[in-house]
Structures are given as C-alpha cells and as structure tokens.
Design a protein that fits this description.
The protein is α+β, with helices and mostly antiparallel strands and 575 residues long. The protein is built from 9 helices and 35 strands. The strands form 7 sheets. Strands 5, 6, 7, 8, 9, 10, 11 and 12 form an 8-stranded antiparallel β-sheet that branches. Strands 28-29-31-30-32-33-34-35 form an 8-stranded mixed β-sheet, with helices on both faces.
Amino acid sequence: MQLLVAPCTLPSIAELAPDRGCFTGAADDRCEIFAWDVARGTARRVTDRPGLGTDVADVEPGGEFLWWFDDDRAGRGSWRIQPWAGGADRPALPGTAPALNAGLAMAADGTAAVGLIDERGFSVHLRSPGGKARTVLAAEGGGELIDLSPDGSLLAVEQETSVRVLDRSGTTVAELPGPLWSPGFRPAAGPPLLLLLAEDDDGYVLRTWTPEEGPRPVEWCRFESEVSAGWSPDGRVLVRQDRRGRSDLFLVDLARQRCAALPVPAGTVLDARMQPGDDLHLVWTDTRTPPALRTSSGRRPPSTPELPPMELPLTLGDRWTEGPGGRIHTLLTTPTDRPGPWPTVFLVHGGPFQHDRDAYDPAVVLLTAAGFAVARVNYRGSTGYGPAWRNAFDAGVGLPQVADLAAVRADLVREGLAEPARTGLAGWSWGGYLTLLALGTQPELWRAGAAVYPVADSAAAFRAGTPALRSLDARLFGGTPDEQPHRYAEASPMTYVDAVRAPVLLVAGGSDVKCPPEQVVRYARALRARGLAPQLLELDTGHESRLADEQATVLTTVVSFLGAQLGGHVGARAV
C-alpha cells in the first residue's frame, strides 16, 4: 500500500557526469521530479502536475537531458525530455500513442530505448542520438525492457520469465529460457556482458552472458532466497537479498570471485545502488522507521532527511505456524499499552510474488494505535523463502493462500493472542482479492473485510486487464478463462458471494487497469442482491495514487471501517 510520508526512492546520477542527477521529491500534496546538482547540493523542480504527480524519471549518462514519464491516472502516457539545466520539454518519441511504461534504457552515445505496453502487447522503440525513433520489437503479451548495452549495440528484454537479447535492428541474438531475470549490462567499457539471475530448485544463482561465450553460471555466488542486483560503476555487483521478512546486502566481485556481506541494520532495504565514487545509496526502513535514503558519503538530495525511529506503542514479533503446505512466517505487531488477547486484523499483502517485511506501514501504525493486533502473513507464493515456497501454486490459486491465513488465525487464537470473535481482513490489490476469497470460503472465521483495488471476479479481471497481467494469470491458472474455466471459477471471489456473511468495504479506482473497477462494482451489487450492505468507495484513481489526500482517504476509511466492525479504539490520525 502507499506510504503517507514524503516519497523515498533512490536518486539517479549521470554515469559520465556524476555531479548531475534527478530524484522524486515531495511537492505540495504529491510527488514530482527534481533535477539535482550533486556538487552544490541544490535542486530544481522539473515537473508540475497538480492532481496527478510524477514519479518516474531518469538522467542521460552524459547528464545533458532528463527524461520523465507523463502519464494519466491509469498509468498510460509517454516520455518527455528536458535539458538538465532547465528549459522547455518536448516529446521523446513524437507520434507514439500513450501506453504503459515498460522500461527506459540509455547508452553513452545518446541512443535510448523505450519499452511500452498497450492493448496490442509489448513493444520496444529505439531512439537515435538525433531524435529519430523506430520500433524494433512488437510482441503479444507483456514484457519489460531491461537495458541497452553501453555501446548501444544490444538490447535486453524480459518476456514472462525469460530473457531475450536483440541487436539494433531487432534481430534476436539470444533466447535465454527461464526462470530468469536480468539487472542489465555491465556499465564498463568493453564487450557487452549481461548479468542474469537464475532460479533453480536450490535457490538463486548469478549468471553472465556474452555474445562470444553465451550464458555462464557463477556457481560460487548462490542465495537460498530471492535477490535483486545491480551493477556498480566499477563493474562489481550489488546484491540485495530478501530473507524471512528482512534484507541483506552483498557486494560481489566477479573477477576475484568474492562475495562480501555489507553491514545493514536489521530491517528492510527497499532499494540499493552503488553510485559513482563508491557512494552506497539505500532506502532503509523498519516497522518503527519510515523509509529514508541513507548514503555512505552523507550526500543526499535536498529535503530528503534521514528520519529517526518513531516512539510507537507497539511490539513486533516473528511467529511460525505449521500450515497445510509447510511452516508459515507471520510478522505479528501488537499494542504495548493494553494486554491481549486483541482484536486482530490480518493485513494481507499483494503480489502474489511479494512478501510482508519488517518495514514501516502506516496501516500497521494506525491499527495498533486503535488497539488491534496486526498479523502480516507470508503465505504460500510469497517471496523471501526460496523457490519452493514462491512457486507453491500446484494446489491451486487463492485457496491455498487463504488456507494459510486460516491456519495462522487458528494458531493465534489457540495461543490467546487473537480474539476469535473479533478477527478481520484487509488487503490491497491481490491482498484485497484474498480478503474477498477468504470472506466467501471461510465465512465462519472472519467478522469483517476491507478490499482495496481488488480482483473480485477472476475471469472478468483477466478479460479487462493489461497484457502483462493476462500473461501472469495464464501462467498461474494454466491457461485463459476460456481454456480453464473451472480453475478461474474455483479461485474467484464472485463464485462464493452467496456465502459471505461479514460486513465488507470495497474500494475501486475508476482508472484502475490492473484490477478494473467494473468487476468490483458488480461484486458490490451481488452482495446487495443477497441482502448485505457493502460499503463501496469509488475514487478517480488508478491502481494506486500519488496524491497524499487520496491515500489518506483510503487508509482512514479502512481503519474506521475495521474499528466500527471489530471494536477497535479508532481516533488516531494518518501518519
């Protein structure tokens, strides 16, 4: 869910002009893009989009131009460029229709590549230093542009869980089957070298690919749970590992075959990058500390302070529950100012390939302040526990996950931590989907449910969703709704609407292309037709909002609803 604090993302710094950068910062009630003079420590506002905000931008390697994505509430838009020093901006790809952003990559010679997704599928466009653009790839389904080699000769793209390398003409140079992901090409001069992250039964391992040698495993550098990685300017690799709700950092030297752990406080690293001059930038948080940028040099963009931990009346504990598919990890946050058992909210994460972590979440803060215990369950399909747990969809979609929620609920009730008559659910996106599915398949367990931007009808959401999400659903369900109607029906909250007994809060975004609003509204109508009175909040947002007032409206509505239904002490304000 969205954080009701100043946005915190890593700044971008020009590879060949390290005194020039850009960052996303707070501007009035929203996020906007700023140009950053790193040497002087000053910033200039680049974008100004009231009612929308802007949060995607990058700076060219030479530092001459900034690129920013000019999108609407649904996320459809186009790239614009502006001189880093200031001036008028202009379209980067004139004549290109608005679409969803699917990646930007730039080479030192001024060549740029742009990935876009529209109703037709995934496309990649190559822009010459002179500004001429041409399409080099058009494919059905989803995809993402990963990178452009430093010399501009090769492009890398991800499609589903495979990596494809193309030359400038769009000709395929290599097809690298997955499960496989890529952080991009080595930034150093020399022959192109692509870094890969491969999944196997034992975990995750680094690989490299070159045109001459093809893919080569780096077997000495292996991790048991999910990792992300990025190149440092000198050719080393910074690896961030998600492990059991917390993060570790490693610096990998491929040439010397060394993998060194970097000191990181207990908590979560949301993102990390090694900037020029060995300046480590990371966004760090824990349950008590809002996300903040930390840098090894101490240099940071203006108005991005490092925030101290907040004095909050809560305690965080880790619990492990024996579940139907294995041990389930739960982050349980409880109030310190009143004894248990507590009314308990299961705050269900989205994804499905995400996980709950020891990180600041205003929903947790407000709910514990209202007297609730908050259970964040990393059910089957969550990341951070290795490939077997991540890929545990052999028993179906949705139903195994809600079975894990029920197992944790039983454990908390049995141990005297949760009040059985005062347990409810809340979730955003896929977490909202699981909330509705649990209300319909386990009506005897839950007393209330709040679903924000959810999937309420699996088949309808598939048909109205984006190409990328249709590809994901087809993988999870083994086909489309026409090919696997029983599987979609079995996993759909709409199938179980007759069994729902608890009060329901629904939030729908009018421009949401991921979880379209029509199927949420139909679910509300179905509940009303069966004598229930769901609360439906319809907002003019996409799948999320960059505006603080809209975030606050959703969060306070959810907390107030749960407090009214489960008997919490609501009265805290948004943080």
